[in-house]
Design goal:
Largest sheet: 2 strands, antiparallel
Distance between the termini: 21 Å
Strand content: 5-15%
Number of strands: 4
Structural class: mainly alpha
Low-confidence stretches: none
């Protein structure tokens, strides 16, 4: 999921805005709507939002669930999560999100 592109064409919300919201703790669709203004009904929202919310690391194809599981199993640093899941070990753009997941435990 590297790169920036418009996801919500109705509200002109891009991928990076959505990822930044996730780095600030957004995990659910209703939180994403409130934080970013995505419409959830345009084609981009319908086809991509669920996948974005479920993903942490596009480079290594690491899911949010995998990172949460790693944290629940004791990975308490970004480096430890990377050792277990691979997240953050390639380009590093997901490290802020991994850090937020550790901090919030979700």
């Amino acid at each position: 999921m590297a790169g920036n592109r418009i996801i919500c064409t109705t509200s002109n919300v891009d991928y990076i805005t959505i990822r930044k919201a996730m780095c600030n703790g957004v995990r659910m669709m209703d939180e994403l709507v409130e934080e970013t203004g995505v419409c959830t009904t345009c084609e981009g929202c319908k086809s991509e939002l669920d996948k974005i919310l479920e993903s942490v690391c596009g480079c290594k194809n690491v899911s949010l669930k995998a990172v949460i599981d790693a944290v629940k199993n004791g990975a308490d640093t970004v480096e430890k999560v990377g050792e277990v899941t691979g997240a953050g070990t390639d380009c590093g753009r997901c490290k802020a999100l991994v850090s937020n997941i550790i901090e919030l435990g979700r």
